[in-house]
Amino acid sequence: MVIAMNAQLSRLVDKVAVVTGSTSGIGEAIARAFAREGALVVLTGRRADLGERVMRRIIDDGGQAAFVPGDLTLPETRQAVVSAAVERFGGLDILVNNAAVARFAMTDEVGEDDFDRMVTLNYKAAYFMTQAALPHLLSGRRSRIVNIGTLGAVKSWPGASVYNSSKAALESLTRTWATEYGPGGVCVNMISPGMVADAPMSQPVLAQLDVDTQILSGVPARRLCTTDDIAAAALFLACADADYLHGVRLPLDGGLTA
Ligand SMILES: NC(=O)c1ccc[n+]([C@@H]2O[C@H](COP(=O)([O-])OP(=O)(O)OC[C@H]3O[C@@H](n4cnc5c(N)ncnc54)[C@H](OP(=O)(O)O)[C@@H]3O)[C@@H](O)[C@H]2O)c1
Prior knowledge:
258 residues; alpha/beta; Rossmann fold; 8-stranded mixed sheet; 8 strands; 16% strand; globular
């Protein structure tokens, strides 16, 4: 594990946050936004070179971060992430379940390997990451779980059966966890983005579409979501302003589902 520190005070000052899947894309944007607001951030993902690069960027921005490399589908990785938060930063206040994988194919063409890959990371790993974090989230400090879902869980398209249903399962967990752990001081909520302009997962899909006619014509905001939009929403759900929000799915779809 690599660790680096610097000081900056703001909305998440002294809060310890774990952001899964923070080696790139949306997770990186959330981690950097949290660190700018004073959080002590534990980054994780399999690509150590990228994770360390994100950590360095956080340091350069004046933040504090540690990076734990590993595959989140393995129990030992999840435990190492929690241990890093507790041993290096003294606890755990915020868990962002962001790591996910998408493979798109029609249902009659989906292989069991891809099915297992998506369900094991998007649903099962988020479930047991949360289980590993809960003893610390419930330790008396007001804490947060922010799950990253997808618009596709409520408005689907052909070829996304496994990905979208894995995220629908996470959305259901969001509500269940809100009922189970809200009384213990944990606010559990979900962000549900539409297609993101500048995140890796959407690039293969965007490359095959005429964005203006096939997406934006149905989006009142007339633009795609950005990683900055998601980081801002995650920051809101993680800070004291969202203290009375429990079990909410926050749609970041520019009004597509309005
Ligand atoms: N992009 C979109 O349009 C969009 C829209 C709605 C929702 N989302 C959601 O936003 C989140 C991030 O997506 P993104 O577009 O930013 O894609 P991304 O850059 O591919 O992010 C996925 C992250 O998950 C990590 N990851 C993948 N497999 C892992 C594993 N086995 N163990 C540990 N970490 C693993 C990746 O890190 P490593 O490869 O280093 O392990 C990466 O950091 C996902 O939950 C996605 O479902 C995306």
